Amino acid sequence: MTDITSGPATFGSPAYPAALEWIARRAEAIVIPLCAIVAGLALFSVFLAMLGKSPAAFFELMWRGGFGSWFSIQNTLSRAAPLLLAALCVALPARLGLVVIGGEGAIVLGGLAAGAVGVGLSGAPAFLVIILMGVGAMLAGGVWIGVVGALRHYRAVNETISSLLMAYIAIALMNQLVEGPLRDPASLNKPSTHPLDEAYRIGSLPGMDVHWGLVVGVVACIVSWMLIEKTRWGFAARIAGGNVRAAQIQGLAVGPLIVGFTALAGGFAGLAGMIEVAAVQGNANASLAAGYGYTGILVAFLARHNPLAIIPVAILLGGIGASGGLIQRRMDLPDATVLVLQGMLFIVILFSETFYGRFKAFNPDLWKRSA
Amino acid sequence: MEPVDIGLWGVPLAIIGGAIRVSTPFIFVSLGEAITERSGRINLGLEGTLVFGAMTAYAVAVLTGSPWLGVLAAAATGVCFGLFHGWICKFPKVNDIAIGIALMLFGTGLAFFFGKPFIQPSAPDLPAIAFGFWSDIPQVQAALNINILFLIGIALALFLWWAFKNTRAGLILRVVGDSSDAARAMGLNPNTVRLIATGVGGALAAIGGAYLSLYYPGSWNERISSGQGLMAVALVIFARWNPIGCFLAALLFGGAGALGPALQSVGVTQGYYLFYAAPYILTLLIMIATSSPGRSLAGAPGELSITK
């Protein structure tokens, strides 16, 4: 995006070194979100202070619960893994100008598909089954969100609403299947699919108590970044995201592009469900709808839909989530406290959009005019 | 009274009764959203407003013993949420759809935060009028036990339908919704009109929430809303921004929502969760059937980002 909009290089003022201009142009995308996060935390501090709770104690506990010890860092990273993939489900369509918020549905169906494949193929070699579980999950999630993209392009159905409706339908579908045909009769209180064979579970990374899902998520983010920034499909997607008509006039196949990107986005979310099943739960059940899809929306917007920026943001929000239990116990706050904090961060970050392009310091083209 | 066996007639009767019971929140949220969208803004945050309204109404009803004070308090919080949405969206480059999603998460989070102490106590219900007095069959009486908010909803839909066409305020709203430039040329400030429209929309959505917690299902918990606030947004599009259409569509959605419990009452228990998903599936199918590429929707406000 920055390549297209940056000003004519030849007009650069000789008074400033090129490196400074380069830094100034890119600093905006980092300084504004950071200021917004600080403002959001400040706002939340005011909220806590009004309730008679100490903000200092809150942030101290958040640090301790999320990042302060090796144990809490591992907890944070485990929680960040599904957020990485869930955020990609928002960020990839967003680059095409689509606001898809139903990633939760793709996560649920991906997990269900992975659970079904893992149980259905029991006896087969482990590496094959794990790969097929991933493929099944990506297919399920990909079809689910790909349909949203197709409806958007070919029928002009608003993707924000349709994706959320599809999420509700997906959860109902999962409940139906988990209570019906796919149910393990032994799961009495909490209907679940049959448990996965131990061999098909995803283990931990060497030397730490964090499952391989983290690596999958980070790789998916890097691949997505390369897809958007370094390939012709990504370039075409960015054009279509900027102006659909212009892209169509250029002869770009906008329809396949939208369907492809939304399907890939849903595939990543499905993978998040597969990881939840294979690394955390051990079977598919209603816990798959744990809200990762919704936190993923926040992660993607905080990262401004840049797949690389998703990595630190997901870790930050994973840490906030990881510290939730500790904060709840120590400060006698309800578990929804984290939701309030997330909501405030979300609003502030969206509000900060209005400040882009307003500060001269970030725009070298304006420096010389007043100089 | 002894239940009378009326066989399969129970199913349509339960659907009608359910449609009246379930549709009321849809009516209020969709009328509120119709006002907001007619002004050219879309507020997806009504889901959050609805949940917060449900919590506020319940809490105030528990504390004061008066359900109507609860409804008023909910409406006041709805105005606050709406005004906040309207204010923040006037800034350039701030996306109204994204702000709506953020407010949806924020409103539900805040409602769960403050609502924790109110899950246990029970609040007085909103009163209902027994229109089924002429019948001896209890099922008919149950179906025709109609809440006052539903009747207010009908009146409001008729009033808005008339007011959009025949009042100065309605004209101003439509001008601002169709063209900001035309509105400015008339000396109107589009942002002010949208601010008011979003505030009113928020108040109505919160009243819809109050109905959920104070009448049907009539309790406050964290699963009180099943996306009514969001479905109502889709419903407004389906109703083509026409208040009477909103009312009829809300009845249809309510009926779809009552399908599962109605079938269950006559012993059909297969596919319970799929019937539970019927309103979502219906919404989606209607959106697919009524949208079309290449032409804008008839009656759509010109400034609305969702149809641009």
Task: Report on this structure.
- The complex is a heterodimer of chains A (371) and B (308).
- Chain A is 71% helix and 0% strand.
- Chain A is built from 15 helices and no strands.
- Chain A has helices at residues 2-5, 18-50, 55-66, 70-95, 103-120, 126-155, 159-179, 213-230, 232-242, 244-249, 254-281, 292-302, 307-331, 337-351, 364-370.
- In chain A, helix 2 packs antiparallel against helix 14 (337-351).
- Chain A is globular.
- In chain B, 68% of the residues lie in helices and 2% in strands.
- Chain B has one domain (7-290): Orthogonal Bundle (ABC transporter involved in vitamin B12 uptake, BtuC), CATH 1.10.3470.
- Chain B is built from 13 helices and 2 strands.
- Chain B starts with 9 loop residues before the first helix and ends in an 18-residue tail after the last helix.
- Chain B has 308 residues and is mainly alpha-helical.
- The interface between A and B is large, with 43 and 47 residues.
